[in-house]
Design goal:
binds FE2/S2 (inorganic) cluster; Rieske_2Fe-2S; 0% helix; 2Fe-2S; 2 iron, 2 sulfur cluster binding; six-stranded antiparallel beta sheet; metal-binding; Rieske Iron-sulfur Protein
Length: 106
């Protein structure tokens, strides 16, 4: 059973920012989209690019290596939902961002 883990202060991830954070040994891309937080597996399913270093526009993150785009709300690749990244639960407790990995992500 996975637990919520504190990864950053809310003030460290303002709207429009994506950070890469370590959650129990897994790199996660954490984004603030207009005040809503999203967390997905940092590893792009195309060739392993770091999504946390990608460009964020609205709820879409663009992989910096070859430009695949993913919707952070669903984890699905834009225009080809057969490719997905795992989405994590995110919550804020006392100004601290906490993430829980999905059970299948190890
Ligand atoms: S590794 Fe992400 S688009 Fe190629």
């Amino acid at each position: 059973m996975k637990e919520f883990v504190t990864v950053a202060a809310l003030t460290d991830v303002p709207p429009g920012v994506t950070k890469t954070v370590d959650v129990q040994g897994i790199w996660i891309a954490l984004s603030n989209v207009d005040g809503t937080l999203f967390a997905v597996d940092n590893t792009c399913p195309h060739a392993g690019g770091p999504l946390g270093e990608g460009k964020l526009k609205d709820s879409i993150i663009e992989c910096p290596w070859h430009g695949w785009k993913f919707d952070l709300r669903t984890g699905q690749r834009v225009n080809n939902p057969n490719f997905t990244v795992a989405c994590c639960d995110v919550r804020v407790v006392d100004g601290q961002i906490q993430i829980k990995l999905p059970e299948h992500l190890e």
